[in-house]
Write a structure and sequence with these properties.
This protein is mainly α. 72% of the residues lie in helices and 0% in strands.
């Protein structure tokens, strides 16, 4: 028997579902081959760990004990965070937001054109846009 066939049949061997002659071939191969016997031992060990995990029962009162512990901490005056940090976080967040708004307004004002930098040509100033794009032109009447 080769290693590939033995490793393929290891699950059935562990469960005892192999026919008699195949069972003896796998057993003899496991005695002769260290690689396949190591794989078999790892599979057996994994099965034991899984079986042990299945046997562990959950504690039905765990949640009750945890909630009681939380209530005890609340009653004892336990503060989850330093008072300085609880006050500093909102103040710092507000200061950063005000600074961001201020710098945004300042940057927005930088992009406005300087007054009278370039004068509008007389030709463009005399154009009457209202007459060119009159609403009456677009009406069907």
């Amino acid at each position: 028997m080769n290693c590939q066939l033995c490793q393929k049949e290891l699950d059935a061997y562990r469960e005892g579902k192999l026919p008699g002659d195949m069972m003896t071939q796998v057993e003899s191969h496991l005695r002769a081959c260290e690689t396949c016997s190591g794989i078999y031992r790892l599979q057996v060990l994994a099965d034991k760990v899984i079986d042990q995990e299945i046997e562990i029962e959950s504690d039905p009162f765990l949640a009750t004990r945890i909630m009681a512990g939380i209530d005890n901490l609340k009653g004892s005056g336990y503060e989850p965070a330093n008072v300085f940090i609880r006050v500093l976080k909102p103040v710092l967040g507000t200061a950063l937001m005000v600074a961001a708004i201020f710098f945004g307004i300042m940057l927005g004002n930088l992009s406005q054109p300087v007054k009278d930098r370039e004068r509008i040509p007389v030709e463009l100033a005399l154009i009457d846009d209202a007459a060119i794009e009159s609403v009456n032109i677009f009406s069907n009447d």
